[in-house]
Specification:
Layout (H helix, E strand, L loop, with lengths): L7 E7 L3 E3 H12 L3 E9 L11 H19 L1 H18 L7 E3 L8 E5 L1 E4 L2 E4 L1 H8 L5 E4 L4 E3 L10 E5 L7 E2 L5 H4 L4 E8 L8 E9 L5 H11 L3 H10 L17 E2 L4 H20 L2 E9 L16 E4 L5 E11 L2 E10 L4 E8 H4 L10 E4 L10 E4 L2 E4 L8 E9 L2 E10 L3 E9 L2 E8 L7 E7 L7 E2 L6 E2 L11 E3 L2 E8 L7 E10 L4 E9 L14 E4 L2 E10 L2 H15 L2
Parallel strand pairs: 1-3, 1-8, 3-5, 7-9, 8-10, 11-14
Antiparallel strand pairs: 2-4, 6-7, 10-12, 12-13, 15-16, 15-35, 17-18, 18-19, 19-20, 21-22, 22-23, 23-24, 25-26, 26-27, 27-28, 27-29, 30-31, 31-32, 32-33, 34-35
Pfam families: GINT1_N (PF24793)
InterPro entries: Formyl_transf_N_sf, GINT1_N, Glyco_hydro_beta-prop_sf, Glycosyl_Hydrlase_43_Enz
Keywords: Carbohydrate metabolism
């Protein structure tokens, strides 16, 4: 770090200037952070990718030596397992996009490098005292590990903030290898990952970043790609926290885990794995179509997050097979209570914002057949989030296809006046503004960035702006509790934020989070409750919006359906895919 503490210097433990694509993206994100600079490459002498390439016979000899060493150290069974997995990975599954080589010699031109060898003791690797001293002489703030094995010893303290290393798996459940494989094998809907500051204890580092991604159940390569690419910002985000004075977690208690250590799968496990992949794919194509309905309750919204209460809900659904209704939000206008919602057409593959006068429905049957159209555009509309400010009613409907987040003033159910663009050039999904601690905060996800997993946060002094991004977006990576799911509320001074749990599938349930920190440079929240469907009810497949206003609480629910229209639509899609 520079003398005034304004610049971070880091080193990379690597095999040279050629990296896996996901590793290269990590480095590039770091280079994009102002006042963060690479100062040293610590090159693994044994695997340096700038060494002279071996001849064909040399590679064969090296592979043979590796097999012999594996047999001697781990036995014949493990040798068979490793060899089988290696063949499957390279000739069946493939390495995927994230593992393709990328040359960073231009970006790292001029960065000093030192070659280091290590002493192996059991499964651990130790740097020599002279190499550790050489590394310390560069006065690094952190080392990012992309090479070497399980390192221990003084190297762990050779940089001010230690050695940072990824573990692509939830260390509380999955340790060992291969990454992102056993989650599919064990039918786990979530694949975790951590960035940790290494300690002497295996898989017992200080957690710097943690995230949870939806498991791709029918492809190991896709699951690995998604997880690797989803973690590439993390070192840059930790560096940003350090520069902003928000990295107290660097000194927190290391993680503790007693999870089993997995090894390469056996041939029989690989066969079972492929059978489970096929079964997952079959489930996906035969699950059916989402049929969403909306529900109305006169109970306060907070009661739905209370396990001791069971609010009564009156459900309404679209009377046709070619559409559904979802994302309901209530508002009182001129003494009448209206329900605004997304009306989605399967035929058009698009939605508009519709409404009904709740006082006219008398709480019976499906929504009034004379449902009106509140807002229609040549692009998809949904999530008509409504709120009042200074006596006026506003809305921030989802308009991701227009590549903006816009503010509308609602004069009447059918008069929505576009006020302004709040955030341009962003495919924002489920934008949810809330006033808190004298500022406006806008939560959303992005259609083009893991829409159900990465939470983005912007803030402004006034509703009209100027809107600025949080210092460390995305502020959360968790498919179980990131994407907004309706109206936040305050109880006993605490802000509660409903979110979507999309781990099993889209709109599986709602998770309620209590926001514990909300500033322009920091954000944290904790899950405190869930709003799940009645598994024995008619809408057992999920929930994904809950809202309040006008004395009502609204929510939606869905089931998977097959009907003549959807069967016809699926047959048409299959025919198109199989056509010339």
């Amino acid at each position: 770090m520079s003398e005034d503490g304004s610049t971070l210097d880091f080193g990379i433990m690597c095999t040279g200037t050629t990296f896996d694509r996901w590793q290269a993206e990590c480095v590039r994100h770091l280079l994009d952070v102002e006042n963060v600079r690479p100062k040293l490459l610590v090159v693994d002498e044994r695997r340096a990718n700038d060494a002279a390439p071996k001849s064909g016979l040399g590679r064969v000899a090296e592979m043979a030596q590796s097999v012999v060493e594996t047999v001697e150290s781990e036995g014949a069974r493990e040798t068979v397992n490793k060899s089988s997995w290696r063949l499957y990975k390279h000739h069946v599954a493939g390495d995927g996009e994230s593992r393709k080589p990328v040359d960073l010699s231009a970006e790292l031109d001029g960065v000093e490098r030192i070659r280091c060898d290590v002493r192996e003791e059991g499964y651990a690797e130790y740097f020599s005292a002279s190499d550790v001293d050489r590394i310390r002489s560069f006065d690094l703030d952190f080392l990012l590990r992309f090479a070497f094995g399980i390192i221990k010893g003084e190297i762990l303290d050779a940089a001010r903030y230690g050695v940072w290393s990824f573990h692509h798996g939830d260390e509380q459940k999955y340790r060992g290898l291969p990454p992102c494989f056993w989650e599919i094998y064990e039918d786990n809907s979530v694949t975790g990952a951590v960035l940790q500051r290494l300690t002497e204890r295996l898989d017992g580092g200080v957690i710097l970043r943690r995230g949870y991604f939806p498991t791709v159940p029918f492809s190991w390569t896709a699951n690995l790609d998604r997880t690797l690419s989803g973690t590439t910002r993390w070192p840059a985000q930790v560096a940003t926290d350090i520069l902003n004075g928000e990295a107290g977690y660097l000194e927190q208690t290391p993680s503790k885990t007693d999870a089993p250590v997995y090894r390469s799968p056996s041939p029989s496990q690989i066969l079972r794995f492929d059978a489970r992949r096929a079964a997952a794919m079959l489930r996906e194509v035969t699950r059916g179509y989402e049929k969403w309905s909306i529900g109305v309750s006169d109970a306060p919204i907070r009661d739905f997050a209370d396990d001791e209460r069971s609010p009564t809900v009156q459900w309404y659904s679209s009377p046709t097979d070619t559409e559904f209704v979802a994302d309901p939000f209530p508002a009182e206008i001129d003494g009448d209570t209206y329900v605004f919602f997304e009306k989605y057409s399967y035929e058009d593959e698009s939605g508009d914002i519709s409404y009904l006068n709740y006082d006219d429905t008398e709480g019976e049957g499906h929504p009034d057949p004379a449902v009106g159209t509140a807002l229609d555009r040549p692009y998809h509309l949904s999530y008509p989030y409504l709120f009042r400010h200074d006596g006026d009613l506003y809305a921030t409907p989802e308009t991701h296809e227009a590549n903006e987040i816009a503010l509308y003033r609602v004069e009447s159910p059918e008069e929505w006046e576009r006020e302004r663009t709040l955030i341009p050039d962003v495919a924002g999904v489920d934008p949810t503004p809330v006033r808190r601690d004298g500022r406006w905060w806008l939560f959303f996800t992005k259609r083009d960035d893991m829409v159900n997993t990465n939470l983005y946060l912007w803030h402004a002094p006034e509703l009209t702006g100027p809107w600025r991004p949080h210092a460390n977006n995305p502020v959360k990576t968790d498919v179980r509790a990131a994407r907004p799911a309706g109206t936040p509320w305050v109880t006993d001074g605490d802000l509660y934020r409903p979110t979507q749990d999309c781990a099993d599938w889209y709109g599986r349930r709602i998770v309620v989070n209590r926001v514990t920190e909300l500033t322009p440079t920091a954000f944290s929240e904790e899950a405190v409750a869930e709003i799940a469907p009645n598994e024995d009810g008619p809408l057992a497949a999920g929930r994904h919006t809950i809202s309040s206003g006008g004395g009502l609480t609204l929510l939606d629910g869905h089931r998977f359906v097959w009907n003549a229209y959807n069967l016809r639509r699926t047959a048409d899609q299959i025919a198109r895919n199989l056509g010339p």
